[in-house]
Structures are given as structure tokens and as C-alpha cells.
């Protein structure tokens, strides 16, 4: 799941940008933490949070095959 989010975020902000994607597993619930700089965070969130909502929807749909619940968290560096 982390690779999927990393791929999507890299496509949004560009390959050379300073964006970190980290997976924190807590048993059944797992968190995917996206940490980006101030300039890139706007590209990840999008207008009115539409891109962030779409990322969360994609992760929720992809996690249907696994027995885990993923939460996407976006932080600024």
C-alpha cells in the first residue's frame, strides 16, 4: 500500500521533490503518513481537499483485498 501512495504522490508533485511516505502499522489499523514541504503540500491536498479525498478513496478501495484499515495522514515539514 505504501508503494501505491508513493507512486501517486510522486506523480502529483514530481519525481525530484522532497516528499516522504511512511507506513506505521498498529495491528489491524495502519497509518500512511505523507510528509511534504510547504510548496508540495498544496499539490497533494488540491483545491478544497479534492486530491487528498481521492487519495484516501483509492487507498480504501485498494485495502479491500487486505484485512487492514489504512488511514492517510498528510503533514507539513
Report on the architecture of this protein:
With 77 residues, the protein is of the alpha+beta class. The chain is 43% helix and 31% strand. The protein is built from three helices and three strands; from the N terminus they run αββααβ. The chain has a three-stranded mixed β-sheet. The radius of gyration is 12 Å and the shape is globular.
CA-based gyration radius: 12 Å
Structural class: alpha+beta
Q: For the largest beta sheet, what order do the strands appear in spatially?
A: 1-2-3
SSE ordering: HEEHHE
Mean pLDDT level: 92
Low-confidence segments, ≥5 residues, pLDDT <50?
Answer: none
Give a count of the beta strands, DSSP E runs of length 2 or more.
Answer: 3
Tell me what portion of residues adopts beta-strand conformation.
25-35%
Give the CA-based shape. globular
- Describe the main β-sheet briefly: 3 strands, mixed
Number of helices: 3
| Ends apart, CA distance between termini | 22 Å
Give the helix level as a range of percent.
40-55%
Please name the defining characteristics of this protein.
77 residues; 31% strand; 3 helices
Amino acid at each position: 500500500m505504501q508503494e501505491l501512495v508513493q507512486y501517486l504522490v510522486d506523480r502529483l508533485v514530481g519525481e525530484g521533490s522532497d516528499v516522504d511516505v511512511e507506513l506505521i502499522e498498529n495491528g489491524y489499523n495502519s497509518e500512511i503518513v505523507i510528509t511534504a514541504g510547504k510548496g508540495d503540500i498544496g499539490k497533494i491536498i488540491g483545491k478544497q481537499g479534492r486530491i487528498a479525498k481521492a487519495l484516501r478513496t483509492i487507498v480504501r478501495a485498494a485495502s479491500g483485498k487486505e484485512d487492514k484499515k489504512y488511514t492517510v495522514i498528510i503533514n507539513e515539514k
